Amino acid sequence: QDSSPPIPPDVIREMLGEEPESAAEEILQHIDPVPLATGSIGQAHLATFRGAEVVVKIRRHEHRREEDQGLGGPRRGARRRA
């Protein structure tokens, strides 16, 4: 991690809306606009998914393309908060 500036909430909404399955509003009931942590590759936010509190990792656009090419496609994931 480093002192990278956080990705603005409106940009995060746009990025989530680009995901192939559906818009952010249909996937998550809530996403906290204030990140838990930020870094050079992305940041993490608390969110609510199907009634459970989860952590959502958001990758910066410049890193999404690089990683997607190396992994054979985009990955999506959320973890329950312990």
From TrEMBL:
Pfam families: ABC1. It comes from the Bacteria. Keywords: Kinase, Transferase. One of its GO terms (molecular function) is kinase activity. This is AarF/ABC1/UbiB kinase family protein. Residues 1-62 form the ABC1 atypical kinase-like domain. InterPro entries: ABC1_dom. Residues 60-82 are annotated as: Disordered. The keyword DNA repair does not apply. The lineage of its organism: Bacteria, Bacillati, Actinomycetota, Actinomycetes, Micrococcales.
